[in-house]
Design goal:
205 residues, 5-stranded parallel sheet
């Protein structure tokens, strides 16, 4: 379905109606699809009537640049094994179990590093997590789907993704040549991998 502002509000109302002690919603899609923007818009709509929703991004579980350098994987940053998938799953389990306060890491594009405790999850009944690999059926990632009540897939064509990614990398200090190489050699391959998981989603936007 195409997502208008009214469509977003309808989805928000549906989430409110189904919310019990806690609902975990996943938003998944390729790099540059707008997952973070959608998650934040949805959170803001949900919170118009009080603080009931929080965003817990998968990107907070990027491995540090020091770890990636040690792995020889800095150039592949953003691929599945450049994340701490085990840590992400463990954090989701804590949120799922409602084990009190959870300090959740975020990711800073300014310093290109994860930020510990960037979000604090307490007793919010709706937790929105967003990222590329929520539906990936390999390694530790395969445990993610079972921890989420619903997963929405945000699909965007490469013709839209590429300019967005280019703008992101240029703003982050890469040269155009570096940015184009990263997009061609890593991000578009990641996008194809993510799109192969689309059929496992509950809703495609």
């Amino acid at each position: 379905m195409a997502l208008s502002e009214s469509g977003l509000r309808r989805l928000a109302e549906q989430l409110k109606e189904t919310a019990g002690a806690r609902v975990l919603l996943g938003i998944v899609g390729p790099p540059g699809a707008g997952k973070s923007t959608l998650a934040e818009r949805l959170r803001d709509v949900l919170n118009e009537d009080g603080h009931i929703a929080v965003v817990a991004p998968m990107d907070g579980f990027h491995r540090s640049n020091a770890e990636l350098d040690a792995m020889g994987a800095r150039a592949r940053k953003g691929e599945p094994n450049t994340f701490d998938a085990e840590g992400y799953v463990a954090a989701l389990r804590r949120v799922r179990a409602g084990q009190g306060r959870v300090e959740w890491p975020t990711f800073s594009r300014v310093i290109d590093e994860p930020v510990p405790g960037g979000v604090v999850i307490e007793d919010e009944p709706i937790v929105i997590t967003e990222g590329n690999y929520l539906l990936l059926d390999q390694g530790p990632w395969r445990d993610v789907r079972g921890l989420l009540d619903e997963v929405w897939f945000l699909d965007v064509p490469d013709a839209v993704l590429v300019p967005r990614l280019l703008e992101r990398f240029l703003a982050g200090g890469r040269s155009r040549e570096e940015a184009e190489a990263k997009i061609a050699e890593s991000d578009l391959r990641n996008a194809a991998l993510v799109r192969a998981t689309r059929d496992r989603a509950d809703l495609v936007l």
